[in-house]
UniProtKB/TrEMBL annotation:
It comes from Cypionkella aquatica. Keywords: Membrane, Transmembrane, Transmembrane helix. It is found in: Membrane. PANTHER family: AMINO ACID TRANSPORTER-RELATED (PTHR42770), MEMBRANE PROTEIN (PTHR42770:SF7). It comes from the Bacteria. The chain crosses the membrane at residues 21-41, 53-72, 93-113, 140-156, 163-184, 204-224, 245-264, 296-317, 348-365, 371-391, 412-430, 436-453. GO terms for biological process: transmembrane transport. Pfam families: AA_permease (PF00324). Residues 34-450 form the Amino acid permease/ SLC12A domain. It is a multi-pass membrane protein. This is Transporter R00093. Its main location: membrane. GO terms for cellular component: membrane.
Length: 474
């Protein structure tokens, strides 16, 4: 029966795989490019949950969480250098059922993030049209569809062009945040910040300490997706050097960008407007630029928002398709998805298949629901990582296999990550408890499907591609 799942992955008798063409800058562009849109939209829902100070505290605690993610990923992925990222890690270290679930977490986190980016892009086009005299509101749907289709085509044609494009537009979007900070802060600009007035009284912590806890839900949005650097493991020239460097440089970039974004937006926008992502600030940095009164800043942050959404959606297509492709290649999904394009050397079937799923959510779901779906899928993936890291060090201690990078603080990052994930689950439950329970129920159902049906097609002996010795204790 398993033979019905076999698919030819060869061309002219040679094994067909992904191309190793990427360097550290491309890894940085993939990680930061996916995440930087979180500085341009979405994080401000944390202000609505708990106020401006709560959003800042959530920003820094989420920064600690993602720093732990980056350290763990840097060690494990530089050692397990294959497409699929955390899915491939789980496959080698824990087992097939965990790997299947982690693969789905990755696909849904990135696909929902892609949909959120497309929604923001449609809003931005509509806003710019209004600024240039277009009345009556612009139909955003064609621009949403066009953006997703164009980026899918770019990914289809090759990873080097895809991530080089991301490198350029991500650098511009990050530079726009720096310029916005310098132009509006007392450091070099006119000193337009009004933190004292906008954050006094009820505005500081309107819902008390419970608001800080609730804000952790959307605090993750500042950094969600940095773990996507692992998806490039099979396409970088030097995994041991490029993956740790790109990932750790990426999280440092995002910590700076997140803090500057909070400072600028909370100093220019009232917290009620900033925290209302429906009738208030959909794209807070762009709204802050409008408040500044500078046309140059408005256009710069408009371009920055556009580039950040494009870079994120572009990286999401890259990462989701690699996870889906890897699961197909290992027969966790139909092996048809594990095909590599004979010319462009991309997982083209996985790319094409995920496009309509992103479009359905981008065209039919509200932004906060899409963001929450992405956050929850990512959070479930982060919960597995401490277990994965502890088992990795236990099964293969430092002296048994060669690692591309060894993070020096084990097990502190794993323990910290588990604790922060637990807090964030409670924060999500406070505002989106029904959605949290529904998603966990969904993953339980698909786990049962995998265990009782799909697992019969999996060739366990073919999955372990790493030349490691037998795990200690086995």
């Amino acid at each position: 029966m398993a033979h019905s799942e076999d698919v030819d992955h060869t061309s002219h008798g040679q094994s067909m795989g992904l191309l190793r063409v990427l360097g550290p800058a491309h890894v940085w562009a993939l990680g930061v490019g996916i995440v930087l849109v979180g500085e341009y939209m979405g994080w401000n829902f944390a202000v609505g949950k708990g106020g401006a100070y709560a959003a800042l505290i959530a920003c820094w605690f989420a920064g600690v969480l993602y720093s732990c993610v980056a350290m763990i990923d840097s060690e494990v992925t530089s050692t397990v250098a294959a497409a699929g990222g955390q899915y491939t890690q789980a496959k080698h270290i824990i087992g097939p059922l965990m790997a299947f679930n982690v693969g789905l977490y990755l696909v849904f986190a990135y696909t929902m993030l892609e949909a959120g980016n497309a929604i923001t892009l449609g809003f931005l086009v509509d806003t710019v049209a209004g600024m240039t005299g277009h009345e009556g509101g612009l139909d955003q749907r064609p621009f949403i569809v066009l953006a997703i289709m164009f980026l899918a085509w770019l990914n289809y044609r090759g990873v080097l062009a895809t991530l080089t494009f991301n490198l350029v537009i991500t650098a511009i979007a990050f530079s726009a945040i720096i310029v916005m900070f310098l132009a509006t802060s007392p450091l070099l600009g006119a000193g337009e910040m009004l933190h004292k007035d906008l954050m006094s009284g009820q505005a500081s912590l309107p819902y008390g300490w419970l608001g800080i806890l609730a804000a952790m839900h959307f605090g993750l949005w500042y950094y969600l997706g940095i773990e996507g650097t692992t998806q490039a493991a099979e396409e970088v020239r030097s995994p041991a050097r490029s993956l740790p460097f790109g990932t750790l440089a990426g999280i440092m970039t995002l910590l700076i960008a997140a803090t500057l974004t909070w400072y600028v937006c909370s100093g220019l926008l009232p917290w009620e407007y900033l925290g209302d992502g429906v009738n208030g600030a959909v794209a807070p940095l762009f709204s802050a630029a409008q408040i500044s009164g500078s046309n140059a800043l408005v256009w710069l942050l408009g371009i920055g928002t556009l580039f950040a959404t494009l870079a994120s959606a572009n990286g999401c297509i890259n990462d989701a398709s690699r996870a889906w492709f890897s699961m197909g290649r290992d027969h966790y999904l139909p092996a048809w998805f594990g095909a590599v394009h004979p010319v462009y050397r991309t997982p083209y079937r996985a790319i094409i298949f995920l496009v309509p799923i992103a479009l359905i959510f981008a065209l039919g779901a509200p932004l906060d629901q899409v963001i929450t779906f992405s956050i929850l899928s990512g959070l479930l993936g982060y919960t597995f990582m401490p277990i994965n890291m502890i088992m990795f060090r236990k099964k293969w201690p430092l002296d048994t296999i060669k690692r591309g990078y060894e993070h020096p603080l084990h097990p502190l990052p794993a323990i910290s990550l588990m604790a922060l994930c637990s807090v964030t689950y409670f924060a999500v439950f406070l505002g989106y408890g029904t959605q949290l329970i529904a998603m966990i129920g969904f993953y339980i159902v698909v786990s049962l499907w995998f265990h009782f049906w799909r697992y019969r097609f999996v060739k366990r002996a073919d999955q372990f591609t790493m030349p490691w010795p037998r795990p200690r204790g086995y």
